[in-house]
Amino acid sequence: MLLYYIRHGDPIYDPDSLTPLGKRQAEAVARRLSLHGVDRIFASTSQRAKDTAAPTAELLHLPVTELDFANEETFWKEAAGPTKRGGHNWYMHQPEYRRIMNSAEIRALGDKWYTHEAFSSTRLPEGLSRIARGADEFLYKLGYEHDRENHCYKAVAANKERVAFFAHQSFGIAFLSNLLDIPYPMFATHFDISHSCVTVIQFDDGEDGDSSYILPKVLTFSNDSHIYESRLPTKFINEFYI
What we know:
This protein is 38% helix and 24% strand. The protein contains nine helices and 14 strands. A six-stranded mixed beta sheet has the order 5-4-10-1-11-12. A two-stranded antiparallel sheet has the order 2-3. The protein has a two-stranded antiparallel ribbon with strand order 6-7. The longest helix is centred in the middle third of the chain and has 18 residues, at 124-141.
């Protein structure tokens, strides 16, 4: 199976929608995905994700299955909090939390990083646990059972499909860190996903054909080749050119 994870296009958050640029980005993604085709399309229940998925669904004549666990509004309530300057932002974007997430103490805790006292008063562990459950259920329905103890997957059904999943940045960081069994603090502080960019993950047949030991492999991460192809501005989240 090939899993394409796509962040929504350039957004308007209120009301939830896409900017004119975001709509062009969504069309560029559709042209890219239509080259080889996808078999199934999933999207967060947010309008900006559904609007980004719509051109792909139209070109390939496929329905879009909505996934409520991927809606970022819920994760915002769990993974964001007050800042020192009086605002409100994702913990992973706040300097004090970023330093903690990269500390030797956190690294030493490994998979139990969330037991660190810095997160005891937050809902971040709760939110990540909710997303992990949703992600594991989603992948199981696609034919892959998550073996958390051994940090791998086992195939419960053959799947040669190409699957597109349109969702969000911060949700995506949580989803992908869970899928790849990389501790969230490491992933959240070293990786990011820009508007409409595509991450491709391969679920192969397992090591030496062993379907009980499958390690997902990232083939490309937050790739914007469709943006170049369409001659659109190649800015990272509208901040600087890449």
